[in-house]
Amino acid sequence: MGTDITSNSEHVLTSIKIYFPVFLGAVVLYELVRQQGSFQRLYACRNRAATWTNPLVAKESFGFGQWIVPAFRISDDEIFDVCGLDAVVHLRFIRLGLKVAGCGILLSTVLFPVYATAQWTSLDVDILDSISLNILGANDHRFWAAVSAMAVISAYTMQLLRSEYKAFISRRHQFLSKYDVQQYSIVIRDVPKQLQTQDNLTTYLDILFPDSVHAVAVVIECSQLEKLVAKRERYRNKLERALVQCHTSGQRPLHLVKSRGTTVDAISYFGHKLDQLNLRIPIEIDTIETQQRSLCDLMAQFTFDNPSYASENGGPTTAVNPFPLGRGIAKPSQLMRCTAFVTFRTLLSAHMAQQLLQTSKPSQMLISAAPPAHHILWENLGMSIHVRRTLQLVTRYVTIALVVFWTIPTTIVTSFSSVTTLKKLIPNLDNAFAAHPWLENLVLQLAPLGLVVMTALAPVVFMLISRREGHESEPHVQMSLFKKLGYFQFIQIFAVSVIVGSVFDSLAAVLQNPVNLITMLAKAIPAQAANFMSFLVVKSGLNLALELWRVGPVLLGVVYSVCAPRLTKRERQSPWCGMHPPSEPGALRHSQVLPDYVLAMLLTLTFCPMSPLLCYFAAVYFALSELVYRRQLLFVYDPELKSTGLLWHPLYNFVVCALIVAQLTLLGVLILKQAPGPIVAAALLPFFTLLAHFHILQLYPRTSMYLPLLDCVRIDTARRQSDIPFSKQTYVQPALLSRPPLEPQVDESINVTGANLTAQEHSITDMSVYLLSD
């Protein structure tokens, strides 16, 4: 991202004039319309369900801006109760960034006069450069101030991270103590074949945890059954649509059977298909259960005394099939998948199972806490660890290739940040800029705006990749996506935008002498402060306004309302092509939002000692973000009360990496400025940071994963008097629970049995009989 020295302050000022009024106007207009009629369904969505409401939403009669103070008075414990652990992590990380930016603002009160009193080598110095490290000459004693500032903000950041880890552990343990089936359940992946039956695995666990096993569910290969269940739901939906069409038009609709090329009565056809599947699906389930029982009998001879009981060596699952196969049903050795869910009666057993070594083979019996049942990706649970690692390796290389490819559009976007570069590319711009001086400042806004647009496109691409890594649940997919977006933000927005733009501006000098690249980058990074200030202004003024107004979901909701089928009640409530009604926001995708704040943290730490004015813009960004996301989490987004805080650990790692990058960046600048004393001091900072980092890693990550066993015993003792309220079918595959028949459900106002029927059909009033006979 090349920079024109004389236009730095004008560049930032233009961004402020454009985007801060945009945000202010958006907030004022939002407050005026949010309580008007249908707007309440868009901006207080949690009111639509009594189970999702909270004290603030229940009295959404606040006047202009009157919700702000009550929203900030809600404690983290209350947010944990009404929004979930991920929401607490999200808001506390934003607050962490605000504290770091606040530290930078305090340090700026010292750095500003230190830099401003330096001896200038030029008279036409921009005001932003006059209060930055870039103005200092070689071996200036003022570099000690920059090193001291980096040391202070580094120590403060690590202390904040340590405090945040403690707070996270406290709330994580609070979550693990809840009396819910998720807290009492584990998932076992890569189960050896000898344990891939419910009886054998139950026997094995009963030996380890006597009288503690509540339910065992081994995942079954039932893809054929899952297809039948999905087909039955489609026929049910089509039948409902045909019934409504018959009621509204007074005529029975027709359906074209493509395989036969004939037209049939739609109600009769779909009703007949639905009845067929209602009969066939229980038979398929019975066949699978029969095979399970036969497989259990076949393996009954394999006892715990056998040394290969919990290993992959040998076993009766390789025996000849002793019973006939149903159509589409796998062989016994292929019937069971290598994953199982276990629910215990006590927290002590659940946490002991996660920490005990089950086998000497590191690729078997991998145990972790069970995810929420509604987030499980059942199609991935048959993959072995070797398949999963292969997929993750492939997706890692695909991600690297995408990041490299993304350098091309990033280069194009960053070229707009340098008027000099644009004039080289388009010589005719000289005349346009001379005739319209305001046009130059306007063009400079395209670079930060373009970077914002690119960060919005990245989640779509990386989500497709993350879903193909074999993760067991949606939260793990989101964590994988967050890591990819974090690296993408760092490489593309921070590194490539600086490196590529600088190399593009001085390509000839670099080719002539590659050593010039180091000097050029050391000069370029401090000079990027103005561009990154504008970037933060765009994020503050534009992105947060779009989030507050929910522009993206509302636009998709308009498309949904226009294009999606909405004839039946089910159609009006169901997603279509990935789109939902705007009044159904779903949960906040933290993995797609938090990478922006990781980047803001990186910019704050990097430019705090070099251009401390950026900390002010970062503080505004973090403060406005907490305001907006408190509103959205409390009033709009659906709560994720079963979220486990998976994003905290990568968040912590990203901040430590950002801190080390900031320290190395300062070290590179000091080397360029030939300041030997500050160089030695700055070189020590990464080592102290890593020392503190390793100390935190030794103490807290493991503590945050499990509930202390003594606490488990105390909680189990308090709950021992009550019966276990958990269903044994919570972690059973949904297809195996679809034995009950499906019937169409239409509005009560529709008289289904009287919708233009024949005389013979008028005598039939029972819906099931009508569908069977029609």
Give the overall pLDDT as a whole number.
84
Strand content of the residues, in percent?
under 5%
What best-fitting shape do the alpha-carbon axes yield?
globular
Discrete helix count? 33
Structural class: mainly alpha
Query: Cα-atom Rg, whole angstroms?
Result: 31 Å
The biggest sheet, with number of strands, parallel, antiparallel or mixed sense and barrel status, is: 4 strands, antiparallel
Number of strands: 6
How is the secondary structure organized here?
Layout: H1 8-33, H2 39-43, H3 55-58, H4 68-73, H5 76-83, H6 85-116, H7 127-130, H8 143-176, E1 185-189, H9 198-208, E2 213-220, H10 223-249, E3 254-257, E4 262-265, H11 266-299, H12 332-335, E5 336-344, H13 347-355, E6 366-369, H14 385-405, H15 407-414, H16 419-425, H17 429-435, H18 438-444, H19 446-466, H20 474-505, H21 507-512, H22 516-527, H23 529-549, H24 551-563, H25 569-573, H26 590-607, H27 613-636, H28 648-673, H29 676-699, H30 701-705, H31 709-719, H32 759-762, H33 767-773
Antiparallel strand pairs: 1-5, 1-6, 2-5, 3-4
Helix pairs in contact: 1-23, 5-6, 6-8, 6-26, 6-27, 8-28, 8-29, 10-11, 11-33, 13-31, 15-20, 19-20, 19-23, 20-22, 20-26, 22-28, 23-27, 26-27, 26-28, 28-29
Features:
single chain, 774 residues, mainly alpha, four-stranded antiparallel sheet, two-stranded antiparallel sheet, globular, disordered C terminus, transmembrane helix
